[in-house]
Specification:
With 382 residues, the chain is α+β, with helices and mostly antiparallel strands. It folds into two domains: 172 residues, 2-Layer Sandwich (Beta-Lactamase), CATH 3.30.450; 122 residues, 2-Layer Sandwich (Heat Shock Protein 90). It is built from ten helices and eleven strands. The strands form two sheets. It has a six-stranded antiparallel β-sheet with strand order 3-2-1-6-5-4, sandwiched between helices. Strands 7-8-9-11-10 form a five-stranded mixed β-sheet. The radius of gyration is 32 Å and the shape is elongated. About 2% of the residues have low confidence.
Length: 382
């Protein structure tokens, strides 16, 4: 039973207050804006017995002469939610003056002027209220409520104009706070994206250069210092990732760049190998890859590194990546002994099959008598 159906003049203020509190709680609970607006219109219809409730908002996207019908409940007009309409009639007057328009015969008001598509449906209204939605001096839009001519709730609702305006004021404050939270979240997402796309890529590039240089250095003490620098860079990269995670949940793997995922696999391999594999990159790993290719590529790196770790006592592992316009190549070389391996056949078969599914190939060969080389490559079509 609707609150207005249990009409008690001595209890109505409390019912309206509870409705406003519930509305504020729901709006600030983190639900999306469309759902929040639907809740406001539904709650107002429930507490007031209105036959029609709508929220019209100012949206800079459409310019000064157009407003957006963000939510509609009643009279079969729900499908107009999200429709831009001219800023005219009672909508425009309320937003321009900041004053409510309330009339027992709203359709007879000179300022009524609804959008043409609404005229027929709204012609049944008697009591109507156009109330500004404003908070902290900012005009957000208008809340519209209407009752059918002769509605059994019309007389009671006419006495509760002030309560409807209080409800609208609470809705405006809650909607503004929700919008502020959304802007804050968007700002945090922007910062996280900049850290991920720019800073992480730069650290990745520096790390790649250091890995390459360390492999070219003959003096052990210089090579040791290069490895120490690489370890420090890895720590810094991890701290940046932690900061990104604190700003927002990391995106699904399918949405991460290949370079970001390669770093993850290299870091994970350090745990099983006891050292960081050397990484050599030719081409741009930040190029967008088809999702199935990127997924198989990352799995191939993981599988090839797992294969290297299954060899006996490897002391060096190199991951070489090359991306051209039409091909992606992964080469993993290790110097471990082949005598004791954990299910090598299954690992290598999986690598071979993943390449074949993408019209590529995978081969395993020995080099220099003591090194195992896994070559995995797939074509890039566009």
């Amino acid at each position: 039973m609707s609150p207005i159906e249990a009409f008690d003049p001595n209890n109505r203020h409390r019912q309206w207050l509870l409705a406003a509190l519930e509305m504020s709680r729901v709006l600030l609970s983190g639900i999306d804006r469309d759902e929040a607006l639907r809740f406001v219109t539904g709650k107002l219809r429930e507490i007031s017995g209105a036959d029609y409730v709508a929220i019209v908002s100012i949206d800079p996207t459409y310019g000064e002469d157009v407003v957006n019908v963000e939510a509609v409940d009643g009279l079969g007009l729900e499908h107009f939610a999200g429709t831009p309409v001219p800023r005219q009639g009672a909508y425009g007057a309320v937003m321009d003056t900041g004053r409510s328009i309330i009339s027992p015969n709203i359709t007879l008001e000179e300022s009524f002027g609804p959008p043409p598509a609404f005229v027929e449906a709204l012609s049944v209204l008697g009591l109507g209220m156009y109330i500004p939605l404003s908070a902290t001096g900012t005009m957000l839009g208008a809340l519209v409520a209407g009752w059918r001519r002769g509605s059994r709730y019309e007389t009671a609702a006419a006495r509760e104009t002030e309560l409807v305006e209080i409800f609208a004021g609470a809705a405006a404050v809650a909607l503004q706070q929700q919008q502020s939270q959304l802007l804050l979240t968007q700002d945090r997402d922007r910062i996280a994206a900049e850290l991920r796309d720019d800073v992480i890529d730069q650290l990745f590039s520096i790390g790649t250069d250091l890995h390459t240089i360390s492999g070219m250095v003959a003096r052990p003490e210089v090579r040791q210092r290069a490895h120490e620098a690489i370890d420090k860079l890895d720590d810094t990269t991890q701290k940046v990732r932690d900061a990104i995670f604190a700003l927002r949940q990391d995106p699904p793997a399918a949405q991460q760049t290949a370079s970001f995922q390669v770093l993850d696999e290299i870091d994970a391999a350090r745990t099983t190998l006891g050292f960081t594999p050397r990484l050599v990159v030719h081409g741009r790993l930040d190029r967008a890859l088809p999702s199935q290719v990127q997924r198989a590529f990352v799995q191939a790196i993981r599988g090839a590194l797992t294969n290297a770790a299954s060899h006996t006592s490897p002391t060096t592992v190199e991951v070489a990546l090359e991306m051209t316009d039409d091909q992606l190549t992964l080469t993993v070389t290790d110097n471990g002994q082949l005598a004791r391996r954990a299910k090598p056949g299954a690992l290598l078969t999986e690598l071979h099959e993943s390449a074949q599914r993408l019209d590529g190939s995978c081969t395993v060969r020995t080099s220099g008598g003591s090194e195992t080389v896994v070559d995995w490559h797939v074509p890039l079509n566009g």
